[in-house]
Amino acid sequence: MTREQHSVLAPGAPGAGGPAPRAALPARARPHDGLRRHRRWLVPLLVALLLAQMAFAMVTTAVRQTPTIDEPVYVATATDYLREHRVRYNPEHPPLGKLVIMAGVAVAGPHYDTSYHGDQGAVGRHLLYESGNDPWRLMLSARLPVIALTLLFGLVVFAFAREVVGTVGGLAALALYAFSPDVIAHGSLATLDVPAAGFVLTSAWLVWRARRRPRLYLPLAGAALGAALATKMSALPAVPVLMLLAVVSGYRRGRGARRTAWVRGLAGAVVVALAAVCVVWAAYLAVDPHLRLTPAGPVPVVHGLRGRLTGLLPFPRAYRDGMLVQFGLEDYPWQGYLFGRLYTGSLWYYLPVALLVKTPLGMLALWAAGTVAVVAVRRLRPAAPYVLLPPAVLLAAAMTGSRDFGTRYAVFMPMFLAVGAGCVLAVRWRWAPVVTGALALFVAVSSVRTFPYYLPYANEAFGGPAKTRLRLHDSNVDWGQDLGRLADRLHDRYPGERVWLVYKGSGVPSYYGIHGRDPRHVPQSEVHGLLVVSDSSVAKARGKLAGLIDSSRAIDDVGHSITIYRR
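^ thats the sequence. predicted structure below, dont judge the formating
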């Protein structure tokens, strides 16, 4: 008997016998109506609560943090877009993410000295500290649009998971996203990592939706992909993946017309690519309708296959020149640090190991279980390539990079794999909801315990945020974010003491009332008092600085990113 027949011949229906049907009661007397009404508002309420706690965590973090290393460059470039309408600074990154930041800069209305000449880092410091602006207010204004965008991506995570596995799975996915220390840390900064990753996620979700309505969703998916490409060039490896998925979604086989189905699929891929290209051009046109290119620094000449492929890209010249700048940066001999080892170059396994350290343990377990569930559960298999393939390809591409600077290069992982983790609830095991809930609660507790120090987060297996500096460096731990907290600590606990400072960051210590000399420029015998060192500098210390640290006693730590020693 079909479901429809069963509903017709339910007890009490004509010809079925039994008591009078419940449907015959007046609408206000039907049981379960109250439950349905509660469900109608319960899900939006839970979504709102999860996003509200995430917003609270990001805003309170943004208010207290001083500029990280990259932020002054992006804020100055956004200000230059606003005032000068030109592509001059930071050509290695396309403009869309900085146009988002520009929305906050426009509200702050900073004074901008167009006569100042310097590299992009110097222009950023001049804007924040030497132009009469309030750096606290300007940085918060620049960060708020990125925070808003991060919250919107949370809705994408929820919608994606709900469509794949159901409402409860969507809530579980959103909970993992909303409590992810990496997403909170980088979503509260005026940087480009979270916007680029979120646009790729949005594109994958829209391509998934295009299986039913390709004419509507494939152009939108292409626009989202273009937004990712117009934010960071590291999104380029996602292009062939999403075009392939567009072929799958656009494939419609009718009455054996396989050739027609393939044509539709390929046409869908072309639509995605064209929409993406149009968005990239639109981003540059939004900055300068005349597409003038006035780079502040030289553009390197790149020979060989990389140079030829760059010249073939269907993007504005500024984009192609920016890619050449990126290749120049990739060729630089950067230093990395992993579990006490300082090295030059990169390690292919750096990102997986860093993710293992900086991802909550419950989240790691749910990522693994969700990946297995998406592949093993038959009804979820159609979603597997949409959920798993983009992050796998992006991670593989990121692992080949030369800059081992942090998990921000893989911040797409907690986005995509949150969707996959929600799929655990589709497993037919009576304890699946209980275990999933317990692991999600473990994630939430671990995340809340690190508040408000999300950048240096490490899970409990690796000693928590206080021990991250022993395993990793740079934006994993110390990105210059705690200069303001250091000023407060020195004022409150060590007033009047002599300070020797080795600070890694873009902030200007004297602006915050920190007047310390660099101990590396004087004889070691003269260094007495407080030795204050950023933890990234501690990790990479060699020679004289290493000797100073070894002969000092650690007495305090600021934000798990700066250590204070007594000499």
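The beta strands are 335-338, 341-344, 499-502, 530-534, 553-558, 562-566.
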